[in-house]
Amino acid sequence: MKKRRSFPVTVAIPVTVVSRPRSLLFAAALLAAGTTAALAAPATGAADAGNYCLSVKSDTARPLCSTARDQFYQKNFRSALVTMKKALEASPQEGVIHAMIARIILVGLGDKGAAEGELRKALQGEAPRDAVLPLLFRVMVDRNEETNLLTEFPEPAPGAKGQEVAEILHGRALALSSLGRLDEAAASMDRALAIRRDITNLTDRAEIASLQNNAALAGKLVDAAYNLDPKDRTAILAKLKHIQQSGDAAKTVAFSGKALEQFPDDVQLRRIRIEAFMKLNQDAKAKADVDAIFARVPRSIYGTYYRALLMARANHKKEAWEIMFALPPGFVKQNPDLALSMAQLAFDTGHAEAAGRWLGSALSAAPQLLDARLRLAQLRLSEKSPQSALTLLAPVKDSRDPRVQKLIGQAQAQIAKDRAF
Fold first, then answer.
1. Which of 406, 354, 346 is nearest to 381 (CA)?
2. Rounded to two decimals, what is the model's pTM?
3. Whether pLDDT at 21 is above 50
4. Where would you tag: which of 112, 154, 248, 255 has the fewest CB atoms within 10 A of its CB?
5. Which residues contact 135 (CB under 8 A, 6 or more apart)?
6. Measuring CA to CA, how many Å separate 329 from each of 69, 79, 80, 138, 357?
7. Phi and psi (nearest 5°) for 280?
8. 283 near 277, Cβ under 8 Å?
């Protein structure tokens, strides 16, 4: 029988949110990109200017494009993709159709590599660059292509204006932020904001401010975005996340409730409320939200994760572990912010190796997650691998967080002790 192992207690490390992992940023931005450009929500009259299907030149391809667009909004993603490919067969050189296909692939199938290929074909096919560049930049950053992005799209000349300039400055800011070059990212995003002060630029600038530990500025930017359009999903999500990061669980529950009245099927909003309910020890209410996720998506991976978490909290840890361990291998990498809870359950049930694997996967996707880094370093110390712990802590060795210096001191002391023998 495998010996159960409790979580190492060398250092008490509270679970805190340092920043939003890249995958969450991408998910929020992807929805915005998918609903404000080429796949803008069905509209009539003047709003049809945002429907790029109308710009398709081929009389045969144009109605197929519109049909695929309708299928997309009915969440028939595979049907939408099949129909849009028929449109492409009718007009192979239409860049707009490639842009449409990229969005369908991203939202419906999650294949970022294939989507990037389609977006590049869209540029070659002279699709409107405002329909392509925002999503291309998001995809490149999410695929760890930040350096390529900065090289391919150099910094615009001082004083340069225009929508494309704003998009490039925005994309560069995302790449610089992902690389940890926060001051450069802030400067680039500020230039973008000077050209176009919209919700996307404001919320992404707020994200950079959060990474710079400037909560006051982040709050002002989020409020500015929300005031532009209190019904915009991106603005609502940014404001909700800012409230969540403040640590006020009751306020998070209240605001998420209002948000869910407007977007009842939004899993991300519901996930935030589930976590707030759990923080308030209102697990029955959290379970009701989990059930709501399953009602919408019977095989929801997020629903499965939270079901396991609630079971663990109810001391059904063995059953919870079996459910958690069965999650797809890529789940942690796509959701690195969830790795801490998963690792804790692994430790509680005697599966330290899985805990280390999950934490490592989370850090590979989101190196900025300080708590995951500290817990993995703590694990390495408990395994008598102080050099591995120091390697993990090297990127944050100058941090003012006292937990970092305490772990570094313990690793150095362990190395010195080993050498004494």
1. 406
2. 0.78
3. no
4. 154
5. 30, 33, 34, 37, 99, 102, 103, 106, 115, 119
6. 32, 27, 28, 23, 10
7. -90, 5
8. yes
Rounded Cα distance, 289 and 279, in Å: 14
Answer yes or no: are the C-beta atoms of 132 and 96 closer than 8 Å. Answer: no
CB 95 within 8 A of CB 127: yes
Neighbouring CB atoms inside 10 A of 194's CB total 12
Q: Which residue has the tokens 């992404």?
A: 204
Token pair 């159960």 is at which residue?
Answer: 4
CA distance linking residue 157 with residue 141, whole number of Å: 22
Tokens linked to 272:
């935030």
d(CA 281, CA 109): 35
DSSP H helices, 263-369, are 267-279, 283-296, 301-313, 317-325, 331-334, 339-348, 352-365
Tokens 């994760």 belong to residue:
305
Taking the CB of residue 39, how many other CB atoms lie within 10 A of it?
25
Q: What is the pLDDT of residues 85-133, one digit of tens each?
A: 999 999 998 899 999 999 999 888 888 899 999 999 999 988 888 889 9
